Amino acid sequence: MPLQPVISMEKRENIMVLEKNIKSGVTKFMEHLNNTMDKPDGYGYELNTRGSKYFKVEMSSLGHRSVYCFINKRNGEILKSAGWSAPAKGARGSVLVPDSYSHSDWSGGWLYKIFGNVYNMIG
């Protein structure tokens, strides 16, 4: 029988707090996308929670869907989509840092590093 790693009670509590903060941050991020951010009529964003490592944020318009971004379930980092099922490398923001996505746009242009994404410079 394999040995189970021992996790201290304090570490467990810290993990639970982080998970709660990420869940709250994801909710705020989705509210920002759907209610605060300027976008053309008919555009909406939905959260797909089925992945094991990432939440997938899907953009829908006029019956068409595409991946807007991914959110890392372990640390809340926002990642640009590299395709339908995988994110690109390198965090572009965090649901835990609202300033990191305050300049988001409906098409996802803010997720490109070449357009001045400054997430890693915040703090």
Question: How would you characterize this protein structure?
Answer:
- The protein has 1 helix and 5 strands; from the N terminus they run αβββββ.
- The protein is elongated and about 55 Å long.
- The chain is an alpha+beta fold and 123 residues long.
- Strands 1-2-3-4-5 form a 5-stranded antiparallel β-sheet, covered by helices on one side.
- The mean pLDDT is 89.
Distance between the termini: 45 Å
Total helices: the number is 1
Classify the beta-strand content into a percent band: 25-35%
Q: Biggest sheet, in brief?
A: 5 strands, antiparallel
Q: Radius of gyration in whole Å, from Cα?
A: 16 Å
The global form is elongated
Counted up, domains total 1
The strand count comes to 5
Helix content: 10-25%
Spatial order of strands in the largest sheet = 1-2-3-4-5
Order of helices and strands: HEEEEE
Q: Let me know the average pLDDT.
A: 89
- Briefly note the structural class of the backbone: alpha+beta
* Unreliable parts: none
Keywords:
123 residues, alpha+beta, five-stranded antiparallel beta sheet, 5 strands, elongated
Walk me through the topology:
Elements: H1 9-36, E1 43-48, E2 54-61, E3 64-72, E4 77-81, E5 87-94
Antiparallel strand pairs: 1-2, 2-3, 3-4, 4-5
Short account of what is shown:
The protein is built from one helix and five strands. It is an alpha+beta fold and 123 residues long.
